[in-house]
Amino acid sequence: MLRVHFKPPGASGGINKKLLRQKMAQASFQSLGHAGAAIRLTARRSIRVSKRYALPGSPPHTRHGQLRRAIVYAREGNDRVLIGPGFAHVGPSAMAHEFGGRFRGHRYPKRPLMGRAMRKTLIAPLWRDSIR
Question: Are 94 and 85 a contacting pair, CB within 8 Å?
Answer without folding.
Answer: yes
